[in-house]
């Protein structure tokens, strides 16, 4: 299933001198303390321990007090209520503890526009220009829909069409940019070796969000996803969405889906793809680690492509995941917290994180900055952001009431099996989702 890379024991050795900000030093300032709260997930704590050490060494008079835990939300919640909020938080808005969502709802996070409109840590331009396109304007960073930034992006995880770069290179195949090119390639593949065009993790159809959301954004614009995420009437049953759903159905309808796909689990379909039974599969960068012991065709090399679009010069949306940093509005040392945030986007920090985790910060230069710390597969897959007109796309549903029996994602993705088996039309698919959204709206109204 979907997972992140475990942190390695290897940590980059760096001197404090290499991370001194050319813009800001605290050498002559009074002694200051920075209290940071860090969620400890699969990446471990080695990277964060190193960042604390380097930040203190490069900012004379600064003492960083770090609390790091897998249950950091439960630890800081009573502190926030008591008026002792940390200065800096690394915790996602999707955490089960609900701490960040509560801070968003209460407008209790510091506006970070000045950080991103200011110079980056190296003093070579604005920090905003360093961030991967599309992320800062998403609800992950601008939660109120007004493009004002209250959460900063940490790492990003692109998801798209995984393919075997070696096979494409050896057969002089171009990665398709449009739906027409995609289906034409399906015919070409039949002549080369008979492999199918596409497969997916059949009994786990939620993986198809990596195709569906970019396809809808291409047909309707990103604003359409905001409407869907908020269960607006008509948001899932309109001309643009139906066109995107039709492209998905056409994969099976026109004979391009690997036989047996709908009955496979994630490892089975991924293995079939790696053995050369299908050219593409929807997935993310974690697939390399997840399938490290799986059999594969000779010379297999991971690469990732965006979902096809109607026109070659359209925006090519890359479905993305993004963890977050934030600074509470009640932070006692907000300016030092902002300096720490800028520091985390430095090349040295980005490189150290890549070595410790195998993942990358959500910056445009991260792939090249950390190239020598990444496997060939991860380097190739993160290259998806460098495709022409590529833009990050993040989809996050509004929370449903606690007693609501509707799971929006299940209502959207579970029907894919019936659609691929020609047991349901795309119109029925859309109508069923609209009915589920109507129930969610009713439950939300009743809860208020």
Automatic annotation (TrEMBL):
It holds the Pfam family SBP_bac_8. The keyword Membrane does not apply. Residues 1-29 form the signal peptide. The keyword Signal applies. Keywords: Signal, Transport. InterPro entries: Bact_solute-bd_prot1, Bind_CPR0540, SBP, SBP_1_CS. Belongs to the bacterial solute-binding protein 1 family. NCBIfam families: bind_CPR_0540. This is Carbohydrate ABC transporter substrate-binding protein. It comes from Blautia faecis.
């Amino acid at each position: 299933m979907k997972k992140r890379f475990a942190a390695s024991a290897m940590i980059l050795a760096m001197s404090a001198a290499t991370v001194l900000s050319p813009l800001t030093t605290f050498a002559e300032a009074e002694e200051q303390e920075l209290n940071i709260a860090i969620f400890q997930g699969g990446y471990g704590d080695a990277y964060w321990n190193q960042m604390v050490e380097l930040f203190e060494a490069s900012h004379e008079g600064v003492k960083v007090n770090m609390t790091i835990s897998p249950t950091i939300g439960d630890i800081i919640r009573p502190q926030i209520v008591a008026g002792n909020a940390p200065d800096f938080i690394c915790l996602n808005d999707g955490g089960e503890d609900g701490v960040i969502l509560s801070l968003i709802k209460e407008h209790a996070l510091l506006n970070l526009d000045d950080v991103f409109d200011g110079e980056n840590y190296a003093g070579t331009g604005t920090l905003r220009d360093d961030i991967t396109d599309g992320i800062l304007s998403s609800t992950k960073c601008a939660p109120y829909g007004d493009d004002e930034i209250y959460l900063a992006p940490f790492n990003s995880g692109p998801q798209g069409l995984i393919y075997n770069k070696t096979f494409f290179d050896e057969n002089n195949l171009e990665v398709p940019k449009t739906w027409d090119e995609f289906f034409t390639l399906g015919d070409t593949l039949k002549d080369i070796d008979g492999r199918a065009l596409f497969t997916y993790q059949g009994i786990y159809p939620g993986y198809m969000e990596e195709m569906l959301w970019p396809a809808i954004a291409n047909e309707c614009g990103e604003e359409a996803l905001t409407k869907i995420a908020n269960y607006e009437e008509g948001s899932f049953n309109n001309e643009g969405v139906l066109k995107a759903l039709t492209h998905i159905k056409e994969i099976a309808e026109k004979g391009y889906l690997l036989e047996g796909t709908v009955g496979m689990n994630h490892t089975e379909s991924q293995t079939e793809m790696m053995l050369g039974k299908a050219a593409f599969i929807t997935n993310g960068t974690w697939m390399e680690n997840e399938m490290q012991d799986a059999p594969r065709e000779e010379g297999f090399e991971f690469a990732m492509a965006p979902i096809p679009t109607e026109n070659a010069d359209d925006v090519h949306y890359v479905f993305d995941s993004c963890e977050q940093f934030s600074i509470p509005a009640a932070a006692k040392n907000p300016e030092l917290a902002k300096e720490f945030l800028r520091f985390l986007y430095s090349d040295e920090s980005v490189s150290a994180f890549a070595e410790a985790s195998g993942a990358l910060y959500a910056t445009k230069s991260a792939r090249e900055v950390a190239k020598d710390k990444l496997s060939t597969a991860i380097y190739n897959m993160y290259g998806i952001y460098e495709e022409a007109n590529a833009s990050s796309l993040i989809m996050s549903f509004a929370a449903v009431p606690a007693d609501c029996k509707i799971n929006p994602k299940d209502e959207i993705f579970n029907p894919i099996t019936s659609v691929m088996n020609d047991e349901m039309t795309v119109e029925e698919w859309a109508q069923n989702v609209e009915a589920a959204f109507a129930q969610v709206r009713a439950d939300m109204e009743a809860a208020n």
